Every structure is written in structure tokens, then in C-alpha cells.
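Bit of a strange request maybe. I'm writing a small parser for C-alpha cell strings and I need a real example to test against, not something I typed by hand. Could someone generate the C-alpha cells for this chain?
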Amino acid sequence: MKKLTLTLCAVTALVSATYAGTETYSGKEMKQTQQTMETPCPTWYADNEFNVSISGVYAPTANEYREDTYLGVDHGWGAAIDAKFFFRRYFGVGIQGFGLSINNSRNDFLDQFDDDENNDFAGGVLGTFTFRYPIPCTRFAPYGWAGVGAIFGGGNGNRLVFDDDDIDFPTDNRGEDDARLMAQYGLGFEVRFTPHLGLLNDVSYNHLEGGFNDFWQVRTGLNFAF
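Reply from user aminoacidic:
Good idea to test on real output. This should exercise your parser:
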């Protein structure tokens, strides 16, 4: 009996020693270990990033073209270039330039009194402030911006005035080329193909000094990040 008791004690001690070296983990600990071993998300948008973008532009006027006092057409086509510096990846300051083809020669009643060619180009320069939000672990980043600057080359208001002294000969009172203050507000999104190349799509409303002269800009282009 004494020998049997000693044998059982020895077996119990051996089994205890065997299991003493086996570590156990809770479900939460296992999940944390697995997440640590996973590959981190790639960084598509960086802090302290310099961006240069080139875009095509479609610019419809906010008013019917006969009422527009600056572009003088119902829409224009053109291009834009932006240079921005993003700090902390979310906020950027920059400068934007754009040019629009606004060939507003029309075979209407006014043309018979106009010996000069109508303007066919308008351009602007603005300083901009941008907020963007790169969605974590995606290539997608929506953004919004506001800008202020000036536009030049328009002033194509078409207004016909009859002289009280001689009603047979109307006067063409079209506006001259002039520069005007301009504010711009826009929203868009970017999709990155690589950390250094992305596709931009956005729309902005352009508010010009004076009345009946605002217009939209719809842009699509490429962004180069450095």
C-alpha cells in the first residue's frame, strides 16, 4: 500500500511538470497577436506632400448666355494647373491657374454692328486652401477647397442701346476686357494609383465681382505627388 501511494505521487508530479510549461491564451490575446502579425496598410497619402495637378475643364455659366455679362457664352472649355503643399496630410495651401476658350462669335443681330472680333479667352489665378481626408487603408480621399483671386479676358456683356436722337442707328455697348475679383468653392475626390500618381475629379462654383457673371468648373485630371 505504501509502495502504491509513492507511485501515484510520482506520476502526479510528472504530469504537473509536463503541463507547467504549456502557455494558454485567451481569445482576446490571440486576436491581438494575430493583428500584430498582419501587414500594415500602405500609405497612399503622405505628410508634408507637394502636389502638382493638370486638369481638363468644362465651364458652364450659371446664367443663360444672353444674360451673362462676363464670359458671354453658355459654356467654355479649357485647362487648369494646381500646385499645393499638404502639411499633416490633411491641409494644403496652393495656387491655381486656369484658362478657358470662350469663342462667343455668334451670327446674331449684334454682329452686324460690331467690326471687332469678340474675345475668345479668359483666364484666372487664385490662392487656395484645401482640406482632404484620406480614408484609412484605401486609395480614396475626398476633399474640399476655397480660393480667392482674379479673372481676366472676359467682360463680354451684350447690351444694345438706341440713341434718342437717331433711333435708326443703335449703339453696341459691349463690355471691354477687364479683370475682376473672383472667389471659388469646390468639392471633389482623388483616387491614387500609386503613392505618387492619382486621378482627380471635382466641381467648383466661381463667383465673380458684379452680377450675372458666375460660372461652374467641372475638372478631371492627374495629380503628381512628391
